[in-house]
Write a structure and sequence with these properties.
The chain contains 5 helices and no strands. By secondary structure, the protein is an all-alpha fold. The protein has one domain. The N terminus is likely disordered.
Length: 148
Amino acid sequence: MNRVHAVPVSRPVIDDVRSCEAWLACATLADSRQACRAFIELLDNIEDAPPSNKVYFEILERLRRPIRVALEDQTRRFFTRPLPLASAEENAFIQTCDLWLALLRAWQRLQHEAEEHASDIAFARPVLALRVIESAAALIGVYFAARR
């Protein structure tokens, strides 16, 4: 049986900075829960069909600021809350961890490409190392914020 795997219409196609800008302009980012969900889905979709390394790097750099804003807002939902966390707070914690993990995977992938292969992003090796460290440290920080 031949199966055709079609990409759902709702699945964003980000293959350059211009399409990233268009996605950001249309995305619902006012609510941090929706924003984190949208960013996780976007990063997963890009990971499934990544553009060139240089474009991937540029997209991730462009997404850094809006992702940070959403993550900071989500972290406020469970930071300094009594344990055990309420359901909504626990969900915010899990979603925050998932987004930091998605970012960490993306930066690590690019770092590996820059170090292991003759790559068009070799110039960005120091920045990539910094982004990997930032993402890993932030993930650890989220666990501390949730007192885990």
